[in-house]
Design goal:
Blueprint: H1 2-29, H2 32-39, H3 44-71, H4 78-93, H5 101-113, H6 116-140, H7 152-173, H8 175-191, H9 198-222, H10 226-253, H11 260-274, H12 285-295, H13 301-331
Helix pairs in contact: 1-12, 2-13, 3-4, 3-6, 3-10, 4-5, 4-13, 5-6, 6-7, 6-9, 6-10, 6-11, 7-8, 7-9, 8-9, 10-11, 10-13, 11-12, 12-13
């Protein structure tokens, strides 16, 4: 247990270091005077539209969770799910800890339905289906800009997304074979003699095994249920469509005329990069990815950074709402969260 806690602390401080490096690189790359000038061009109309889109996106994502929860007989009503979703945002985006919003949402829903296992399944299915859709978008979005497809900045992440998508689909459609293979690999690693780096090998395998387990869980829940699959897929596609609109509106807020096609091309790549756990809440990493990739299509760094900061501000706002909800709930004696600071 002590080794596990030490590993968690090391992971936290490494993410802190990564966040600092990404933010430092942004400050060095984008002059503050130019950034300030760009922010000064804020268009009130598009700013309001961009802000209005936030609750729409949150409700769309929450609606998907509700559909999945109903399938598990774990629904507690849309507003209750929305409340849990806001608290999850608070833990994901405002607290510098290893406590993920998914863990918190599963815990709160589990208390409501008195079954943490069913609650966890709803969150796993929601997350896995979102990742699969994002991988698909990352694998094909380059077709929207064939003139840029030859660049390694485009085809390398597209190839990576394709590989992960194929791996995921193999697991999805060959559950029994995948489970037997993972068990055999785990047993083989357990029998290995002492080797330098074995501890890291075990950690990598456990992470892959955890990811595999989530895919298998989602596959089991959705297999043979076409109507359920259609509803979840439709809401997932709706969410990513809103995400494209979110970025486009954020650019327009600062006077940027970035074509929707370009946003749809690059956003899946940026979102996939932002999922790499090398900074706290992807802070600095996501903004840097926006600056780098959109400059590749001729967008100025200061415009992309201003846009990224607006997106970050909106995420923080949702987190603040979750903070208030969590605080009020705690004062009223309901849904107090346990000490999860050692939870990954």
């Amino acid at each position: 247990m002590e080794n596990r806690n030490r590993g968690i602390r090391w992971g936290f401080w490494l993410k802190c270091g990564g966040t600092f490096l990404f933010l430092y690189a942004l400050v060095r790359h984008v002059p503050l005077a130019e950034l300030s000038s760009q922010i000064g061009e804020l268009d009130p109309l598009y700013f309001v539209l961009s802000v209005i889109l936030v609750p729409i996106m949150v409700c769309a994502s929450c609606a998907k969770w509700v559909v999945i929860a109903r399938h598990q007989s774990a629904s507690v009503g849309f507003l209750r799910h929305l409340r849990h979703y806001a608290v999850g945002y608070y833990y994901s985006n405002l607290l510098p800890s290893n406590v993920g919003g998914d863990i918190v949402r599963a815990f709160l829903l589990g208390k409501d339905i008195e079954s943490h296992s069913r609650a966890a399944i709803t969150v796993i299915v929601e997350r896995v289906t979102g990742v699969i859709c994002l991988l698909l978008l990352g694998a094909v979005s380059w077709t929207l800009r064939l003139d840029k497809a030859a660049s390694p900045y485009i085809w390398v992440p597209a190839l990576g997304a394709t590989g992960l998508l194929v791996f995921t689909l193999v697991l999805w459609f060959a559950r029994r074979w995948a489970q037997r293979t993972m068990n055999a690999l785990f047993a083989a690693i357990e029998r290995l003699p002492f080797l330098p780096g074995r501890r890291w090998l075990e950690r990598i395998f456990k992470a892959v095994s955890s990811f595999t387990g989530k895919i298998l869980t989602a596959s089991e829940q959705m297999s043979g249920r076409p109507v359920f699959v259609f509803r979840v897929t439709a809401l997932t596609v709706l969410f990513y469509g809103l995400a494209i609109a979110n970025v486009w509106l954020a650019y327009r807020t600062f006077g940027g005329l970035v074509p929707v096609r370009d946003v749809a091309t690059l956003l899946p790549i940026v979102l996939l990069i932002s999922m790499v756990p090398v900074s706290l809440g992807s802070l600095g990493l996501a903004e840097g990815a926006y600056v780098f990739y959109f400059s590749f299509l001729g967008v100025s760094p200061e415009l992309s950074l201003a846009m990224g900061l607006l997106l970050r501000l909106k995420m923080i706002t949702v987190g603040v709402v979750g903070l208030v909800v969590n605080w009020v709930s705690g004062r009223n004696g309901g849904d107090a969260l346990p000490d999860l600071t050692e939870t990954e």
